[in-house]
Write a structure and sequence with these properties.
Layout lengths: L1 E7 L4 H10 L6 E7 L6 E5 L2 E5 L2 E10 L4 H12 L8 E6 L17
Length: about 110
């Protein structure tokens, strides 16, 4: 079992969710986060005053999947979240040692 964590642009969420649903992934967690990479933020003007926005709004998506589905999930997220511009995000894959569904007590792959 693995967790696929993706940092994406907020307006790409529906496309990513639709892509994941299309390959049979039905559960995901979304968190609003802020950060920067090569973009290094930008400047904005508010009421005539210019100020720097150092941390840009992003979404963090986490999906727990069986190990044999990781490649399909990564491919679906990459294809649906890509704009071709700087700041499209990153995908990280982590190993899950143990999982438990609280409601039923199912463990590991059955809990997904």
């Amino acid at each position: 079992m693995k967790i696929v964590m993706a940092i994406i642009k907020p307006f790409k969420l529906e496309e990513v969710r639709d892509a994941l649903t299309g390959i049979g992934v039905h559960g995901l967690t979304v968190t609003e986060v802020k950060g920067y990479g090569r973009q290094k933020g930008h400047t904005e003007i508010y009421r005539g005053a210019e100020y720097a926005v150092s941390f840009l709004p992003k979404l963090k998506i986490e999906v727990a999947v069986p190990s044999d589905q990781v490649a399909k999930v990564v491919e679906a997220i990459t294809a649906s979240a890509k704009t071709g511009q700087i700041g499209d995000g990153k995908i990280f894959v982590f190993q899950i040692d143990h999982a438990v569904r609280i409601r039923t007590g199912e463990t590991d792959a059955d809990a997904l």
